[in-house]
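Q: My labmate handed me this sequence with no annotations at all. I'd like to see what the chain might look like in three dimensions before we decide whether it's worth expressing. Could you predict it?
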Amino acid sequence: MNKKKCRILKLAIDVDGVILDIMSPFCHYLNEKFNTNYAIQDIVEWDSFLQWNLPEKEIDTAFNLILNNKILAPLIDEDIPRILELLNQTWSVDIVTAREKENRENLVEILKYHGIVKTIHYRELIMVEKTPPDSKLKHEHDIFIDDNPYLIDAMPDYPEKYLLLFNQPWNQTDIHAKNIIRIFSWKEVIEIIFRYSQERECDSN
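A: Here is what I predict for the chain of 205 residues:
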């Protein structure tokens, strides 16, 4: 039986912890300031750095500095711009982030600095609320590429969607849902999405 024509796949890709490495420079900043020795591997839960006995004001300062400085946070993988362009040529890529909406224009400039621009690498930049944890999943995307561990528990409620969980120290929760795949590199992103697009049963639109 021939498969019916598929509508174009919609991909939602997170920024922090997926495109940009903000936690390595975050640890470096705090280590320099307080003569500590924290590393990204020490962040074993989503907000575990709040237990480091450091002033919360300084933690906020570190985050604000790194999130708003285009130089401080490097790409997770230098090949990301090329991969995003390939994905966006075939499917529909949106960047979906829980960063504050007032920082939208700054984020656009940071992405441009790293060679990621609208139209070529993504269609839309979508800013969502941090709560509830599944706010991203309520958008009409088929596949989410994210590092947020709180999405793990929410995915069984969205059986028609898939989460590619980008492996990080803070998301080592056991995975039981069939629509979650843990990934360890951006190379896997292309391989899995291409395989999924070939195998899925499609509805006519």
